[in-house]
Write a structure and sequence with these properties.
Blueprint: H1 2-23, H2 29-54, H3 63-86, H4 93-103, H5 107-119, H6 124-147, H7 153-161, H8 164-174, H9 184-212, H10 219-243, H11 248-258, H12 264-273, H13 277-302
Helix pairs in contact: 1-5, 1-9, 1-13, 2-8, 2-9, 3-4, 3-10, 3-11, 4-6, 4-10, 4-12, 4-13, 5-9, 5-11, 10-11, 10-13, 12-13
């Protein structure tokens, strides 16, 4: 457990540093917003571009890997919506926000640095593959559930294909055949931006957590956190190790990806619909705090440390 804590401690140490800097007013609220914009628009797209452009992609689709992860995601999403409706009387888009919060992982701010630190280059390919479809799948599902028959496929496509992270993924995939022709100065520029992604993302999340707080109380956020940090990775672990066959680092990446805290995209989604904002922000704050211990436990169970 101690070695696993040492894997995640630098990640959560930077989150704590951002939180403390905002709490002591060493930095302004706009600092976090600016860092967040930089991370989403430039740094993380460059990180994903570099990862996918240089990654050794398998020739055949790892169907067991996909099924393991997204089966867990679907079960947790459905349970979160059911509990939010039956126990906490949430309705409409608020229900979707609850499901989205419990199922969508905070991969950019927590998952990428933690998984790469745990598995190194071996984890880059399964991580990159999951990143490539995780956001499009969850965002499309959330939009369809929230808007129902009025959902515009054209509007969803426009939002997805203008999202900076999706652009980074698409460009990284597109340049793979041309990678030897990309000039070295351009790679240096990409490397500099990609290298800034992890520390800036974590400090930005710490600043944002200071703003979110626990506005929604503990009831529903605690349920969403338990589903996200406990049930989701458990289902993925059972499927990836007991039902399907895959390399240990592939199943490990899937489990750690699922074990990440509630994703910040759920909060952004709630802000867009002006419903469930307190639920999403509280779930993000609580699950992020708890994930210091739960991710260390999963790393220990997986034998990574």
């Amino acid at each position: 457990m101690l070695s696993s804590l040492l894997v995640v401690l630098p990640v959560f140490g930077l989150i704590g540093l951002g939180y403390a800097a905002r709490w002591t007013k060493l930095v302004r609220e706009t600092t976090g917003e600016g860092l967040s914009d930089f991370v989403f628009v430039l740094a993380v797209p460059c990180l994903l571009f570099r990862t996918l452009a240089k990654a050794d992609i398998p020739a055949s689709q790892p169907w067991g890997y996909w099924i393991s992860y997204f089966t867990g995601l679907a079960i947790v999403w459905a349970l979160a919506m059911l509990i939010a409706h039956r126990v906490f009387s949430r309705k409409g888009p608020e229900l979707v926000v609850s499901g989205f919060s419990a199922a969508q992982s905070n991969t950019v701010f927590v998952g990428v640095p933690m998984i790469l630190k745990a598995y190194g280059d071996a984890g880059a390919v399964p991580l990159g593959l999951l990143l490539a479809i995780h956001l499009p799948v969850t965002m499309t599902a959330a939009t369809l559930l929230a808007e129902g028959r009025s959902a515009s496929l054209k509007g969803m496509a426009r939002r997805l294909f203008t999202h900076p992270i999706i652009i980074g993924i698409l460009f990284g995939s597109a340049v793979r055949p041309l990678i030897d022709f990309i000039p070295a100065p351009l790679w240096t520029l990409v490397d500099l931006l990609a290298g800034a992604a992890v520390p800036c993302a974590l400090i930005s999340l710490g600043i944002a957590m200071r703003r979110y707080g626990l506005e929604s109380g503990l009831g529903l956020p605690a349920v969403l956190s338990a589903l996200k940090l406990g049930l989701h990775p458990l289902i993925v672990y059972l499927l990836a190790t007991r039902v399907f066959e895959m390399p240990a680092h592939w199943s490990g990446v899937a489990v750690l990806f699922a074990a990440c805290p509630c994703g910040i995209n759920a909060y952004l989604f709630a802000e867009r619909y002006r419903q469930g904002v307190a639920d999403a922000s509280s779930a993000i704050a609580l699950s992020t705090m708890l994930s210091l211990f739960t991710t260390a436990a999963w790393l220990t169970w997986l034998g990574v440390g």
